[in-house]
Specification:
mainly beta; 4 domains; 2 helices; 31 strands
Amino acid sequence: MLNSYSKNMLLIILTIVLSAGAIFGQTSGFTYQGRLTDGGIAANGNYDLQFALFDAADGNNQIGQTKTVSSVPVSAGIFTVTLDFGASAFTGANRFLEISARPSGAAGFTLLTPRQPITATPYALRTLNSATADNAQQLAGVAASQYVKTDDARLTDARDPKAGNSSYVQNSTSQQAATNFNISGNGSVGGTLSGNTVNAATQYNLGGQTVLGLSQSVLKLGNSGNVAIGQSSFPNYKLDIESPDKNGLRIGAGTPGGTALSLGGFGAFEVDSNGLQAGRFVVAENGNVGIGTPNPAYKLTVAGGSFLGGNVIVGGTVESTGGFKFADGSVQTNAVGKVYTANTVGDVEVDHSGRVTDVATLTLPPGVYLVTGTVFFENRANDLFQDNTRVVRCFFGNEFLGADQMGAPINNGVYSLTFNAHTVFTQFGNGTVSLRCGNLDDRGKVFARNRRFTAVRMGDNPN
């Protein structure tokens, strides 16, 4: 809040002068000096001052923005500030300053009336005569006859663009903004030509030869052009990639179901070994595949022979309609290593008194198999005052696999035993094979629970 006598603040204009910057630097700022009284006494201390520019002594037509100058030192009532309302604020018409003041930090400003007119200074008076030069007939010693008049033909005829025009391309290492060029003839560049995008209508040449061209909408290399990636300074192939590290070339598809690599047309696909073309792998033009041999005689030739003469480990599925020929001359027409399995879960009571029950069965094509079986039995006999032990026998076909005695059940009549069938080699005809088990005692209550019956194919015949 202003002191109670602050309402009696009085501004006595002393002078308005252009600042030195306005005289020499041609800025729009000017220096304003005035005298301020507070309660009839010359003000001393720091005051906040506000200045607004108007076009009349009264009225609401303000010119520009209100300027606030904070903490202006006032000594014996005298203060000096620099104001800048912009060059466009002073057009030659009358201008008046409306000033408000308050002690620095007080809550509100007190409007000082009346508005103060802005008058011209001696340097500003000179601008009134700027429309007429000291010597309108001669500038810097050049006679008026040498001036270009508005009707001079040189102002309208076609002529070369000059510096500063966007059509003028300068000889400079700095980028020239908003400048383009389009040349219909030929040109040469002795140094390096750089650009963000280079667009060639037909082809690119190196040494006078086409190295990259567009023919029938297909991007291609020249007929004699080879491309090297890596250490190949003089490539011998259309694309020669030699990596100094372990990573050479990777080709893949970005989405599932795509084609990572497609090779077609005439010729073979080869993977060379050191010093031997196609020494590691080859897909011949006739479709034969060679591993370790460049000249496969069969659909698959391994390790240089005319058949499967090397070691082949297959972890998945291999399909052949003509069978496989091995190094001993034998031919395998059905898959070696194929597994047939029967897994049965659930209780079935086996027969007793020397009889047997099928606990697991398999249907197999003719061949030689390695057969194993596992049965989990439970003895549930728990008759009072009886011998509750049981003896279980198992057979594979007519071959006796062995017998095991199951002790009397304990803990509420339950006793568990796992029986493992023997491993055998057997020649079968096409049909069903069974794992059969039974209880020798004349009393039952022996149950087969989880059963697994497995046959692994070893070959077509026992020879």
